[in-house]
User: What shape does this take?
Amino acid sequence: MKSQHVEVEGLTAHYVVAGRGPALVLLHGGANDWREWEENIGALSQKLEVYALDLPGFGLTPKPEARYTLNFLANFVHGFMQAVGLSYASLGGHSLGAGVALKFALRFPDRVERLILVDAWGFGRVTLLGWLIVTSCNLFRRVFQPGRFYPFLEKEPGQGNHWLSPEELRKLEVPALIVWGERDLYLPVAQAHRAHQLLPNSELFIFQGCGHAPQRERREEFNQVVLKFLLSGRDEASSRCS
Assistant: This one.
């Protein structure tokens, strides 16, 4: 696993990369950085070329001057893929990162092979308990400039200025795996079922007895589920071409 930097949208973006194979770009959730995926990269990179990116203002990627919206973040991911030479990739995201992955797929559907949406933003409101946890988190205060990230969150939790509209989502044809923790107190599991109803080409996998971060809480099973989804159909295609 290599730690690298690349210039994206005027920022020096930090990321790690590992493995060879079909490309997968991983996007972390709020109050996290690329290390949110640290326990997944080893297994996933056995079959995939995995990129785990620090989004602007997180980890080793500097804080942005631009307004912090899903559109800004989707454009940033697009710029990152261009900078590292990825014309096409699967995107995986957790919480905020899943919302970014969805916005990216809506804006640039021809650049996305498949989606992994883990306890995703964009399908309902954050619970009061979850919202209190997020807004009281000291990490948010340390990481973000005052007046940058908080207005994006506070106007509409999980929404900001660019909502993922049901009308747009119903038209999204990119294959998507929706992964959710049954006991997520932040984004309730009912939102997983709503996501599955809205996304026409989606599969749903719910981890029983699991909270908001199944990629950590149930990492071995999570890795297996993700690899099965991302690699399905590839062996058959290779056989037909040989």
Summary: The chain has one domain: 2-241. The mean pLDDT is 85. The domain at 2-241 is CATH 3.40.50.1820 (Rossmann fold). The radius of gyration is 17 Å.
